[in-house]
Amino acid sequence: MMTAAANELKPVLVFDSGIGGLTVLREARVLMPERGFIYVADDAGFPYGGWEEPALKQRVVDLFAKLLAQYDPEVCIIACNTAFTLVGADLRAAFPQMTFIGTVPAIKPAAERTRSGLVSVLATPGTVKRAYTRDLIQSFATQCHVRLVGSENLARLAESYIRGDAIADEAVMTEIDQCFVEMDGRKTDIVVLACTHYPFMANIFRRLAPWPVDWLDPAEAIARRARSLVPQAADAVHPGNFDFVVFTSGAPDFPTRRLMQGFGLKA
Q1: What is the sign of the dihedral through the CA atoms of 167, 211, 145 and 215?
Q2: In terms of DSSP H, where are the helices of the chain?
Q3: If you compute the radius of gyration of the chain from its CA atoms, what whole number of angstroms results?
Q4: Residues marked as catalytic
Q5: In the chain, where the domains are located
Q6: Which of 124, 138, 154, 160 has the fewest CB atoms within 10 Å, i.e. the most exposed one?
């Protein structure tokens, strides 16, 4: 087991396009109580689903050049499927000394768990069209019927919902109804939530689903992976100078700041 001296504990940086990565932060904190966290929300670039790929790649790599120089984290968790499936390899190539922990659609566990063989992957259009996602299906789920459902609006709806806005059931149903497939007397039994924003709405999804399915949230698996790569510290005291949030816009609205404070982050 790796160990580090308590007085030189570097923070863990969690990055997302918006506030969806808080689902990952919540789990990571439970497993790494001795670490300080820095949460970076690229709200100036949100939502990532609508970006052209070359421009988004450039944006994220440029952002990390600044973030790594400024904060020198122990590891970086990219808590965003859209960003990691596109830019993960570029980040590792650009910053080989840094450990990047990515978020990829949980297709492998879904394929292992399904009984009906019908699995849906709910994601942003960017993640759905990425070769990375197709390769995961090819590698782990050839024996399943996998439906990729690209949602244009769900990440944005989730952001509004987390901030306390009322969301119409019809608006949510329009985004998720393609997930439910019936075929030869079998039904979809697992839906992979391939965007870190979506687990915040899992209770709504459960209520609106035409039949019960397993909604797979990758946050815990990502946090476990991060814990395995972050040195354990004996007798560490949680550092007081971290646990803050960086907004790339520099101007988050009040509900967002209040939400971050609810997650124990200085905003």
Answers
A1: positive
A2: 22-31, 53-71, 81-94, 107-113, 125-129, 131-140, 154-162, 169-176, 202-208, 219-229, 254-262
A3: 18
A4: 80, 195
A5: 3-103+220-262, 107-217
A6: 138
Distance of CA 245 to CAs 36, 94, 179, Å?
A: 11, 24, 34
CATH of the domain spanning 107-217? 3.40.50.1860
Per-residue pLDDT of the chain (267 residues; tens, 9 = 90+): 455 555 578 999 999 999 999 999 999 999 999 999 999 999 999 888 778 999 999 999 999 999 999 999 999 999 998 899 899 999 999 999 999 999 989 999 999 999 999 999 999 998 898 889 999 999 999 999 999 999 999 999 998 998 889 999 999 999 999 999 999 999 999 999 999 999 999 999 999 999 999 999 989 889 999 999 999 877 777 777 789 999 999 988 898 999 999 999 998
Would you say the CATH fold of 107-217 matches that of 3-103+220-262? yes
Q: Which residues are annotated as a binding site?
A: 16-17, 48-49, 81-82, 196-197
CATH architecture of 3-103+220-262: 3-Layer(aba) Sandwich (3.40)
- Which residues are annotated as part of the binding site for substrate? 16-17, 48-49, 81-82, 196-197
